[in-house]
Amino acid sequence: MDLQPIVRVTSAQTVAQQLLGMIRTGRWRVGDALPSEKELGETLGVGRSTVREALQNLVALNVVEASAGHRTVVKSPTPAEIFRTDVLGFLINDTLASELLEARMMIEPDCVRLAAERATDDDLASIALLLEEHKERHLANRPVAEYGALFHIKLAEASHNRVASSFMASILHLMKERGRRIDDIPNARQKEIDDHCALFQLVKNRKGKEAANKMREHIIEWSNTYFDQ
Predict the structure, then answer these.
(1) How far apart are CA 202 and CA 207, in angstroms?
(2) Is the domain of 187 the same as that of 106?
(3) Residue 134 contacts residue 148 (beta carbons within 8 Å)
């Protein structure tokens, strides 16, 4: 028997697995309302915050839909969505999460280097506008995960490499989901803005090599400091 890496799984990830299993086996069908967070927590023996995080994971998978003041309802995803093991694996498997990090490390530094060479005035204006909106939402203490993730997508688009930009677009929802983790970490939201502004300035000044190095440092630092807690 070959030894296998030990995979760390959080309580929220375990809950997400159980809930998804209920949907996959047909115990909960499309249109069914899930039990309340309180009921799920009591049944599973976990806190409401754990249940809430698990449900957010399922929302990211497009398996359930939740709205303020209403119960979480099972959606009607395509078979490709509900059985997307790559997406599920990212949410519940640290090994695959590290592989995604490796893929980003292979692609994003070169993306930003090409962006520094190829970005048009329209590209730069679009990124600048996104950064301003990111800052405004942060100052208003509103969720910013989407803006942080979109910054990386727009840099990839500015590289004018369709394969690279398609890859980044395909992981947008995963980046947003991970980005939500920083909302409660002191100073993390402002640091993200500062890092992105520094990256953008290098791209705007056409400093491709420096931008690539900065992106590499950015990915490693955020993975080590904010996501591996």
Answers:
(1) 5
(2) yes
(3) yes
Whether 125 maps to a domain, the answer reads: yes
- Residue 35: per-residue pLDDT: 93
Is 168 among the domain residues? yes
> 204: exposed, middle or buried (C-beta count within 10 Å: 0-12, 13-18, 19+)?
middle
From the CB of residue 41, how many other CB atoms can be counted at a distance below 10 Å? 18
Closest to 217 in 3D by CA, of 198, 190, 204, 189: 198
More confident residue, 152 or 70: 152
90's CB contacts (< 8 A; 6+ apart) are 96, 97, 100, 174
Phi, psi angles (nearest 5°) of residue 73: -120, 140
Residue 50 has pLDDT above 80, yes or no: yes
Sorted by sequence, the CB contacts under 8 Å of residue 164 that are 6+ apart come out as: 107, 110, 111, 114, 156
Question: Of 34, 50, 81, which marks where a domain is finished?
Answer: 81
Q: Provide the pLDDT for residue 229.
A: 46
Q: Which of 144, 200, 154 minimizes the C-alpha distance to 176?
A: 144
> pLDDT, tens digit, for every residue of 139-177?
998 889 899 999 999 999 999 999 999 889 888 877 777
Are residues 109 and 101 in contact, defined by beta-carbon separation less than 8 angstroms?
no
This prediction's pTM:
0.62
Is residue 139 one of the residues assigned to a domain?
yes
Determine the structural domain holding residue 27 and report its residue range. 11-81
Pair 108, 73 in one domain: no
Structure tokens at 183: 């909302």
